[in-house]
Amino acid sequence: MSDFIVxxxxxxxxxxxxxxxxxxxxxxxxxxxxxxxxxKAEPHVARHAFGRVxxxxxxxxxxxxxxxxxxxxxxxxPKPALxxxxxxxxxxxxxxxxxxxxxxxxxxxxVISFQRIVLPRLLGGVTDEAAIAAAMPKAHQVFNELSxxxxxxxxxxxxxxxxxxxxxxxxxDMFPQLPEWAPLTAANANLVTWQRRVTARPSFTATTWERxxxxxxxx
Length: 219
Known about the structure:
Blueprint: E1 4-8, H1 13-25, E2 29-33, H2 44-47, E3 55-58, E4 61-64, H3 66-76, H4 87-122, H5 129-150, H6 163-172, H7 181-185, H8 189-199, H9 202-205, H10 209-218
Parallel strand pairs: 1-2
Antiparallel strand pairs: 1-3, 3-4
Helix pairs in contact: 1-3, 1-6, 4-5, 4-6
């Protein structure tokens, strides 16, 4: 089977979801770095019409949208399976993946992690504390709901690690180093335990921002 090429920006949680999925599968891949300022220009918009990351190339097949990519990888690389065979567990996984895209990222991680880490680290900007404060009510709502959905289970779809854990894990990875983590998890201790469990996996230790940046430099 052909190797996989992942076009992404180092530090992107969506790109990391794809890379961690490939690591879970034990697949060979390479990172093709995309500069943050080049996402809306050629040649990247030829790969992704909306100028975002990640994009997967596989033997001439080009695919964008993270959920589509990780589901594709779970089909073409069926072992170990990252989608539960039980319909209800799979439905729980799908629900959490959509919570990730529509509520955890939009208006929460896209604001808080961006303001705390991406803006000063990559763009040389100054953190907007007012923007973070405005995002916190939604952040509390999302964290509380994720905690409820997780409950006492080991993973979001039950006892088995799934694509939902990969995507939420990638989004939450930077939060423990932020001052907002403590208030957001004060009543959600299960999320703290879950986050430590997920980020200790080899697929996550192999795809940290620093390691992906190193892969991008070597490309």
